[in-house]
Amino acid sequence: MFAYIIRRILYAIPILIGVNLITFMLFFMVNSPDDMARAQLGAKQVTPELIASWKEEKGYDKPLFVNHHAEGIATVTDTLFVQESLKLFRFDFGFSDANRDIGSDIKERMWPSLAIALPTFLIALVTNISLALLLVLFRGSALDTGMMVVAVMIMSISGLFYIIAGQVIFSKMWHWVPISGYEDGWGSIKFIILPVMIGVFAGMGAGVRWYRSIFLEQINQDYVRTARAKGLSELKVLFGHVLRNGMLPILTGVVVIIPSLFMGSLIMESFFGIPGLGSYTIDAINAQDFAIVKAMVFLGSVLYIVGLILTDISYTLFDPRVKL
User: Fold this and answer.
1) Which of 139, 169, 185, 321 is nearest to 248 (CA)?
2) Could you read off the pLDDT of 67-109 as tens digits, one per residue?
3) CA 35 to chain centre
4) Is 101 helix (H, G, I), strand (E, B) or coil?
5) pLDDT tens digit string along 227-277?
6) Minimal CB count within 10 Å: which of 30, 53, 70, 248?
7) What is the DSSP string of 202-243?
8) 132 class by beta-carbon count within 10 Å (0-12 exposed, 13-18 middle, 19+ buried)
9) Are 65 and 20 in contact (CB under 8 A)?
């Protein structure tokens, strides 16, 4: 297993380099270092000297990919892309263009993101599996058909609609919860209830349909017919056999999601004013703060790759027939 993990980590290096390359290309196609300097300096009359000084201070005075003024290998290494990528691979996120410590910001903002993402994930997991088992129990009935129609309707509507509708109904009309904001400690509960409810409901359609398809695949297996032939009730068959054997794809799907919980939700946090990593990324994009953007893209890629590795390992843990 150790050799497998090392091999996967080595495979991840060119992937992360490619992600960084695409990030640099896309960002600097839209924003030039001069534009970034003007946005950060914020002065109406920004002189070329001020722009040059800001670029030199932040390192944006270096060529992007190729340094024609250098010789040998320095033509590639003495560039903005290589210098900044090396820092990222050391997990040295440095300072933002607005002189904020990015590492400290990430440590501080990950907790509000987890405060929303973790309850949403756990409640949605239990709710979706329970509803899926219920539909499998009554498969082919009017309840099953009706719920599948509702699930497709939930999937077909944008999550933005649920956010706006939830704020209007529960905050503006009924005044049950604050419309936005956040507090540390237990005071955060009143602020995260509505985002969690919306997150669970918005993902219910896709979740129920996916788990239902997993359980329906198991319900037609030979071991289920054998269990019925032994006289077991349908509930015992579902919970004692179908659920247990369907846990492999469920658990592996869950493992790959867990690392992404740290990154938060871009839209949810922005609309509800949650100071998490999602809103942090959106604010950085609006402010053209490339230091934060590249750090968050890199961190998200690393977490996703870690999730994939954990998924492969979990297969071997839950199914001895699978070999790394």
Assistant:
1) 321
2) 877 778 888 888 888 888 998 999 988 888 888 899 999 999 9
3) 29
4) strand
5) 888 877 778 888 877 887 777 778 777 777 776 777 777 788 888 988 988
6) 30
7) HTHHHHHHHHHHHHHHHHTSHHHHHHHHTT--HHHHIIIIIH
8) buried
9) no
* Residue among 5, 13, 1 nearest 302 (CA): 13
CA-CA distance, 231 to 157, in Å (whole number)?
43
Across the strands, what pairs with 95?
Answer: 101
Can you say whether the dihedral through the CA atoms of 274, 279, 284, 285 is positive or negative?
Answer: negative
* Residue 322, helix vs strand vs coil: coil
Q: Any idea which residue has 């604050």 for tokens?
A: 178
Separation in Å, CA 120 to CA 75, 107, 126, 134, 212? 48, 21, 10, 21, 20
As given in the structure block, the two tokens for residue 309 are 């590795």
What's the token pair of residue 219? 């319900």
How far is it, in rounded angstroms, from Cα 251 to Cα 322?
15
Q: What does pTM read for this prediction?
A: 0.81
Strand partners, 185: none
> What residues are paired with 101 via a beta bridge?
95
Query: DSSP class of residue 169?
Result: I
Quote the crossing angle between the two packed helices 189-202 and 159-166, to the nearest 10°: 140
Give CA–CA dist 130/211, Å, rounded.
9
Task: Tell me if 172 sits within 8 A of 179, measured CB to CB.
Answer: yes
Task: Read off the pLDDT of residues 174-195 as tens digits, 9 standing for 90 and up.
Answer: 989 898 888 888 888 999 999 9
3-state secondary structure of 95: strand
Cβ-count burial 106-131 (b if 16+ within 10 Å, e if not): beebbebbbbbbebbbeebbebbbeb
| CA dihedral sign, ordered 17, 19, 20, 21 | positive
